[in-house]
Amino acid sequence: MQTNNSTQTPNQPKSAMAGQGRVVILGAGESGVGAAKLAMQKGFDVFVSDYGVITDKYKAALEKLGVAFESEQHSEELILNAIEVIKSPGIPATAPIIEKLLAKGISVVSEIEFAKRYTTAKTICITGSNGKSTTSLLTYHILRNAGVNVGLAGNIGQSFAAQVADEEFDWYVLEISSFMLDDMFQFKADVAVLLNITPDHLDRYDYKLENYAASKMRIIQNQTSADVFIYCADDEESLKALKGVLPLAKTYPFSIVKKVDQGAYLQDDTIHIHTEPNNELTMSISDLALQGKHNIYNSMASGIVAKVLELRNDTIRESMGNFKNIEHRLEHVAKISGIDFINDSKATNVNSTWYALESMTTDVVLIMGGVDKGNDYNMLKDLVKSKVKAIVCLGKDNKRIHDAFEDDVEVIVNTFSAEEATQIAFHLAKRGDAVLLSPACASFDLFKNYEDRGNQFKAAVKEL
């Protein structure tokens, strides 16, 4: 039986720790500019290269730091002489420049890996195909309300590296994507949370779910018996990925279908969380700020983290009851003519849309579509049949959505802007219905990102 340490990549080149030599950063977004700031502070010769266009905001930040940079190209003579490269999570390992770096034996790591070397703060690392942003924000909310000196970073908020350069937190809540995990080697999570594993980003993993699952399991690499691992005991793929892996950390499962000895479970609409004898936290699910089955799981995971940190039950209950969810995740926009408009633009995969539909209690006009990442829509079919009266496609190529649902709904309409989709959805809905933007796809065909898509939808709703 292998231990969790088997997830490390062998022969990883020696990293840049001493603050001497040339560090190159690929990608000049939030993580890249933050990494540049920390690397400059630690005395490295820093160069930033972005194959795309660097936004004015980040150009100005790099100029203020005095960092040399280039835009819309990767100059090999300026990159292949690095002692270490910090790359954006969005750059795949198959990119030509990455392949050349690895062939030369140059260390390529994530911003998270790099930044962790320079802080003694402890980390709560949250990953999963769905719910990680909500769970990260809820965990951060609980800890901050309890007076913990805590930062929030990773796939959300400000750069981890920039905060390590500027702040002195005792704890960080880090939202960690599979792309980040792929470039993390020596990093260790003090508290690791795995929410679920469902098909996502399979184009980066040879279209094999087991490869993606193996990436997610890197969340427990390097953990010891002094650390904590929290996971969903109801998630089939997580359990499959855990077979043959022996976590060294103290484990706390959570479940809504069975009782667990230590961790969290649901019984008679009440959550029970216990991490030590004679100190159980109970809370009715009707008192949770986040409603819906998926949010019971998210609340359980955050609650276990809080109990592991020995926070007071009253504080945990209060925070879990007054939390406000993130923008673009099942966000109520408006009620117009008795029709609810809900912005779930952050649902960029099929499973997220499943969760959104599962939480709906009315008939739905569903706005979906965009860049299809090899989606399998079969898991949505039962919910679409029972809850969706019409589908409004929002994307350049909607053929796969038509093919998947033409036998399940009477109306499927193509649209090519948020304004057009919103107006048609409004006409298809009637009083008591909900118009739900939950795309199940990436946004890059028509929008800058999922935030832009959600903001354009909200603006269109306000114009009705």
Automatic annotation (TrEMBL):
<comment type="pathway">
    <text>Cell wall biogenesis; peptidoglycan biosynthesis.</text>
</comment>
<comment type="function">
    <text>Cell wall formation. Catalyzes the addition of glutamate to the nucleotide precursor UDP-N-acetylmuramoyl-L-alanine (UMA).</text>
</comment>
<feature type="domain" description="Mur ligase central">
    <location>
        <begin position="126"/>
        <end position="305"/>
    </location>
</feature>
<keyword id="KW-0436">Ligase</keyword>
<dbReference type="InterPro" id="IPR013221">
    <property type="entry name" value="Mur_ligase_cen"/>
</dbReference>
<dbReference type="InterPro" id="IPR004101">
    <property type="entry name" value="Mur_ligase_C"/>
</dbReference>
<keyword id="KW-0573">Peptidoglycan synthesis</keyword>
<dbReference type="InterPro" id="IPR005762">
    <property type="entry name" value="MurD"/>
</dbReference>
<dbReference type="Pfam" id="PF08245">
    <property type="entry name" value="Mur_ligase_M"/>
</dbReference>
<dbReference type="Pfam" id="PF02875">
    <property type="entry name" value="Mur_ligase_C"/>
</dbReference>
<dbReference type="InterPro" id="IPR036565">
    <property type="entry name" value="Mur-like_cat_sf"/>
</dbReference>
<keyword id="KW-0132">Cell division</keyword>
<protein>
    <recommendedName>
        <fullName>UDP-N-acetylmuramoylalanine--D-glutamate ligase</fullName>
        <ecNumber>6.3.2.9</ecNumber>
    </recommendedName>
</protein>
<keyword id="KW-0547">Nucleotide-binding</keyword>
<keyword id="KW-0133">Cell shape</keyword>
<comment type="similarity">
    <text>Belongs to the MurCDEF family.</text>
</comment>
<dbReference type="InterPro" id="IPR036615">
    <property type="entry name" value="Mur_ligase_C_dom_sf"/>
</dbReference>
<keyword id="KW-0131">Cell cycle</keyword>
<keyword id="KW-0067">ATP-binding</keyword>
<dbReference type="GO" id="GO:0016874">
    <property type="term" value="F:ligase activity"/>
</dbReference>
<dbReference type="Pfam" id="PF21799">
    <property type="entry name" value="MurD-like_N"/>
</dbReference>
<feature type="binding site">
    <location>
        <begin position="128"/>
        <end position="134"/>
    </location>
    <ligand>
        <name>ATP</name>
    </ligand>
</feature>
<keyword id="KW-0961">Cell wall biogenesis/degradation</keyword>
<feature type="domain" description="Mur ligase C-terminal">
    <location>
        <begin position="328"/>
        <end position="441"/>
    </location>
</feature>
<keyword id="KW-0963">Cytoplasm</keyword>
